[in-house]
Design brief:
alpha+beta, three-stranded antiparallel sheet, 46% helix, 293 residues, Arc Repressor Mutant, subunit A
C-alpha cells in the first residue's frame, strides 16, 4: 500500500475511536502495515492537521480533530500562539483579559494588539458576561458560550427577561393546578390524590413546548429552573422520588406568594452560593444589585 492509502486507513481507525487510538490499536487493526509505513501515514495526517497527539502515561494517543474547531495558522508568531493557547484553555466559560495578561506576562498594548488580530481572523471572540456586564471574556470563535456567561434563555442581550420568566412561571403553575384539579375530581383518597397530582419535569416540558409560547428552545433543565421559582413562590412543592429524580405538585398555600420570580433570585445562577438561601437584600447580593441597577 502507498503512504496515502495507509494514512486513509489510519484516519478511518482513529475516527472510529472517539477517545483516540494508540499505536497498539493501529497495529491490531492493520497488522499488514509495517511500523515504518504506519509512522509515515501518521506524520502525513499530522501535517494535514486532521489529527492531534496526546500523551496518557507512557502511551501516545492519536485523536481526530474537530473540523469545526478554530486552528491557529502556522505563520502565527510566538506571542499569538501563547495567547491563543491561554484562551483555548478557558473553554466555553472564557477568560478575562486581566487573567490573560497575568499568565502571558505581556504588556497591555501588545496584548490588545494580539487580541484584535485574533478577533479579525475570527479565531477568538469577546463575549459579555451577565455576571459582570462591564467585563468581557474571550473564547475560541466557534465555541458556544456557557450558560453562566450568557444567562441562558432568561437573558436577551444581557437584559433579564422578567416578563418571559413570569409567563413561564404562570403557565407551569397552571399545569400543576390542572393536574391537581384532575386528581381531586377522582376522589380516590389522600394518597392517590398526592400521587396523581405530581408532575415530572418531562411532562411540564411537553406542555410548555406544545403551547408554543417560547421563541427560544427550552430544555428540561430550563423548565426545572422555572418550576423551582414556582416552589420559591410557595405555590408548589418539590418531592424527591426513590430514583433520585424530582416531581412537582401544586399546593394550596394559606399565605400570599412572596413573588420571588419578580426578582432574579428564582433564576439566579449563583443562588447556590447565597449564604442566606435567597433571602437577601440588595446590599448583600451583588448579583441582585447589578440587576436592580
Amino acid at each position: 500500500m502507498s503512504a496515502d492509502e495507509v494514512s486513509h486507513q489510519i484516519f478511518a481507525i482513529i475516527q472510529g475511536l472517539p477517545s483516540g487510538a494508540t499505536n497498539d490499536d493501529l497495529r491490531k487493526s492493520i497488522p499488514d502495515v509495517t511500523p515504518a509505513l504506519q509512522v509515515e501515514g501518521l506524520n502525513k495526517l499530522l501535517q494535514q492537521g486532521v489529527i492531534e497527539v496526546l500523551k496518557k502515561g507512557e502511551k501516545l494517543i492519536y485523536r481526530a480533530k474537530d473540523p469545526k474547531k478554530s486552528t491557529l495558522p502556522k505563520e502565527a508568531d510566538t506571542e499569538e500562539k501563547v495567547v491563543y493557547g491561554i484562551i483555548e484553555e478557558g473553554g466555553n466559560k472564557g477568560i478575562w483579559i486581566r487573567d490573560i495578561r497575568m499568565i502571558s506576562n505581556l504588556n497591555m498594548t501588545q496584548l490588545n494588539k494580539i487580541l484584535k488580530n485574533l478577533e479579525t481572523k475570527k479565531l477568538i471572540k469577546a463575549v459579555k458576561s451577565v455576571n459582570a456586564s462591564k467585563k468581557k471574556v474571550y473564547m475560541l470563535y466557534n465555541l458556544e458560550p456557557d450558560r453562566s456567561i450568557t444567562g441562558g434563555a432568561w437573558y436577551q442581550d444581557q437584559d433579564f427577561e422578567a416578563e418571559f420568566v413570569d409567563v413561564l412561571n404562570q403557565q407551569c403553575l397552571r399545569f400543576l393546578q390542572m393536574k391537581r384539579e384532575t386528581a381531586e375530581s377522582k376522589r380516590d383518597g389522600p394518597l392517590a390524590l398526592k400521587q396523581m397530582s405530581c408532575c415530572s419535569v418531562k411532562e411540564v416540558h411537553k406542555f410548555i413546548s406544545d403551547l408554543g409560547i417560547s421563541k427560544v428552545s427550552l430544555d428540561e433543565d430550563d423548565l426545572e429552573t422555572i418550576l423551582k421559582t414556582v416552589v420559591y413562590d410557595g405555590n408548589a412543592e418539590r418531592i424527591l422520588m426513590s430514583n433520585d429524580s424530582y416531581v412537582y405538585r401544586a399546593i394550596n398555600s394559606p399565605l400570599a406568594p412572596p413573588g420571588l420570580v419578580q426578582m432574579p433570585c428564582g433564576i439566579c445562577p449563583v443562588i447556590k452560593n447565597c449564604s442566606n438561601c435567597g433571602e437577601v437584600t440588595p446590599n448583600l447580593c451583588q448579583y441582585m444589585t447589578e440587576w436592580l441597577d
